[in-house]
Design brief:
13% of the residues lie in helices and 39% in strands. By secondary structure, the protein is mainly beta. The chain has a domain of 94 residues: Lipocalin (Beta Barrel), CATH 2.40.128. A nine-stranded antiparallel β-sheet has the order 4-3-2-1-11-10-7-6-5, with no helix packed on it. It starts with a helix and ends in a 12-residue tail after the last strand.
Length: 163
């Protein structure tokens, strides 16, 4: 009788061990931590918020504050723009899924740009606009800069006072 009970309980225990608590670190969060795991942003379903949506081929835009950078993933290219910086287009981008989210990297003669996107609600810490994703941007081996991200097909979210 015990072997049968074990075979019934084991799958349930394994399933319980797999679910539940998100990682303790906040390195993937951008903007404010308040409400970072709250209800999905407007227009974002609960399945997209949890990361269930397919994002492997989706073009995205990551925006950071101070320093102000924008990285647009366009197919197999990353286009980097910034204040007082010329546009930089890096082709041959590779994309992979990691524990931290979708990682997109491309390089050119000047170095490498790495964009990491995760389907986790993000509130812009300057404007208060709510984005459906968080983003990290690393430029030429520098430290990752936190920011907010959105699908390229989505218009930029408006701050709450403009909503």
């Amino acid at each position: 009788m015990r072997p049968r009970m074990f075979s019934i309980l084991l799958p349930g225990l394994l399933l319980a061990a797999c679910g539940g608590t998100p990682p303790a670190g906040d390195a993937d969060r951008a903007g404010t931590d308040e409400g970072a795991t709250a209800a999905p942003a407007a227009g974002v379903s609960a399945s997209e918020e949890s990361g269930d949506a397919h994002t492997a081929d989706e073009d995205v835009i990551v925006s950071t504050n101070e320093p102000f950078w924008q990285a647009r993933v366009e197919g197999d290219s990353i286009v980097l723009t910034g204040v007082d910086a010329p546009e930089r287009r890096l082709s041959g981008a590779s994309s992979s899924m990691t524990a931290g989210g979708r990682r997109i990297a491309a390089s050119d003669a000047a170095g490498e740009v790495v964009v990491t996107v995760r389907r986790m609600r993000c509130e812009d810490d300057m404007s208060g606009a709510v984005f459906p994703m968080t983003g990290l941007l690393a430029i030429d081996g520098g430290a990752a800069i936190r920011g907010c991200a959105r699908p390229a097909t989505m218009p930029p979210p408006k701050p709450p006072e403009e909503g």
